[in-house]
Structures
1.
Amino acid sequence: MTGSYSLIIDGKQVQGAGQFPVRDPATEAIVAEAPAASLNQLDAAISAARRAFPAWAALSHVERKAAVLKMADILETNAAELAELVTREQGKPIGGLGSQWEIGGAVAWTRYTASLELPVETIQDDANGHVTLHRKPIGVIGSITPWNYPILIAIWHIMPAILAGNTVVLKPSPNTPLATLRLGELLQQALPPGVLNVVSGLNQIGQAMADHTGIDKIIFTGSTATGRKVMASGAVNLKRLTLELGGNDAGIVLPDIDLDATIEKLFWGIFLNNGQTCAALKRLYVHDSVYEEVCERLVAYAANIVTGIGLEEGNHLGPIQNEMQFNRVKGLVERAIIDGVRVLCGGAPRKGEGYFYPVTILADAKDGMAIVDEEQFGPVIPVIRYTEIDEVIAQANASQNGLGGSVWSSDIEKARAIAARLECGSVWVNAHGAIRPDAPFGGVKQSGIGVEFAALGLAECTSVQVLHS
Ligand code: NAD
């Protein structure tokens, strides 16, 4: 399982010019050494993708769709191995809402993506002329992924890109490269050489991709700070960009929330993947009349949640994925305590090996505290009291981010009307973060540019050509 890993360049497994260790966040032990691509190897991967592009773009949609469906089958056949690898390097549990669920989602997303089409649109067809709109592949797409859902997010990038006729150079996060390298190796069975290349390396490989004129578009998922760098560097050749960036999603609980019906969804909307989910609920605004009750119910639900080693059965949540993120979460909570929050559960890391941090619920949080204003990306929720709905909507919108949001109420019409006033790309009523492959997903404001999923997401992997004849 922990074996050896190679770059995938032009259909072949290639040894990295160097290597770097990948750590198991549950034990801090090294899972395996990952290959570190040199800049020359990145060039080779981009050249291979450029060479493969004309023939891949020239295939029919039906032929490329068949390849995408074959990739779904390969993923499904190898799901157990990939899930175990994700758990070893990422930390999340194998079962529950963990790595098997992630790989299952990747299979479902791949199959759904294969069903998408971008038919020719007729703009004019009469005696005066014929004008049609065609979708063309862009060229070489660079995919840069984060460490929270390494396989699922890679699938979100590469499947629409490949279906639309592009070729790809994929760079996983240095924290979680192993499952992605193995994925790249397995998927070669469905693709001609050079259509999908995988280069792991440290952050400078991502920067070199953003700088590279051989890449026509970048699909990037990661932090807003890095997204800005990708955008600035991409200007070198006017790269097309899809940026899926950080979020600081607000959830607003109205006085008439049905807690029996929604507490489970509320908890997992916050703590899915240990809060290391882009569109997780990260600031919870609760009306004064139900404030203490909501806090108590969340704490009661949390009491049944077991955090532990992902490979061991019965654990609902694993460790935080890496030491830097662990220290950030720890620091934010320490500061929040100094700022005056009330710790209802958790509040300090578990002693011993591994980056384990318990589910932490912080009452009496206020806007202006770092734990509220910044993205914590960990198993911690600040709960903020409000009384006026207009004020709380303004508070929810007072953020540079605009990824997701939610409203919790038993009056669906009232909740919808409030949801419509939230400045974010996705907004849910009595749920949070429930994404699906047939609904476009993306951030507004500094949470991103463009969308993924559905026909709109596929369209972002194409350029428009209008034929006047
Ligand atoms: P990150 O920005 O640190 O890294 C993301 C990727 O960018 C990694 O592969 C990294 O190696 C690469 N990278 C680093 N420096 C680079 C540079 N200068 N140029 C190009 N690439 C570079 O993010 P992370 O810590 O891996 O992920 C956590 C963040 O991702 C959170 O903010 C989270 O909200 C966000 N995220 C967003 C979505 C979404 O869909 N909007 C999904 C998942 C995660």
2.
Amino acid sequence: MDIKILQERFASHKEISFRILGDGLLMVNINNAQASASISLQGAMVTNWAPLGQQAVIWVSDNSFYEAGRSIRGGIPVCWPWFGQHETESSFPAHGFVRAKMWDLDTVEQLDNGASRLQFSYTLTNEDKKFWPHECSLRLRVTIGTQLEIALHTHNSGQQLFTISEALHTYFNISDIGKVSVSGLEGGDYLDKVEDFKQKTQQGKIIFNGEVDRVYLDTQGTCRIEDPIMKRDIVISKKGSDSTVVWNPWEERSIAMVDMGKQAYRTMLCVETANAARNKVAIAAGNTHTMQATYSLESR
Ligand code: TA6
């Protein structure tokens, strides 16, 4: 996908612009009356969203790489067609393979309510067949306004049912991990990846004083990241998702990740809209499955 082709194709849309980041990542910037955002065409990854007058809601590491084939650390990675490690092939990339692939930007719409709606698609290549031998098409619809809405559509265009796990692996920008809490998952069962996937039940709100890496199962409700320092709640609602992943790497894991940095974990928190573990999704031939997350801010 060439920047000049995109600039010509969407020349009438004054609310978007294109630029090259790092050593060649093609980005689309959106500035409308309600918000600003940035999306990398590699992975169709939202790397920034801020409603007008608000601090950034999406976090990206200061040490992130911006290079072809490597997922940016932060933003909203699209994990598909599996979440986490592949079930049987340890050599396969974690979180699937589409987050490091070039997607197409197909349409840009200016909605009546002032939001901008961009639709991306990824067409699997022959090379991808070694990871995923099924006929299917993938679309991501991003709506940028006072809310951010992300919808991931998987269409099974083949003759056989297939099963996926998936996540919108969103990194949220917070004041300090020691000061925030997450509500909405109270009483939920979760797999604790820090204790070898041991199943536990969430008691009260989630607070953070060490590494947290949990897959909450059978959870369809709205979550909130409550941030008393930034005086805001980040409200996370969803459709078509039965799992919610909560992750903060804490200091030791943060230091071990070359694209994170020693203190980076203090100002980020992942609350991911997902279908994972026993919530994997079977998609019959000819059917389309949609998983959608919507983010909004409320003052505290
Ligand atoms: O969603 C949490 C998690 O599965 C963690 O276990 C950690 O691996 C994180 O994703 C980041 O994964 P990545 O492959 O992007 O480094």
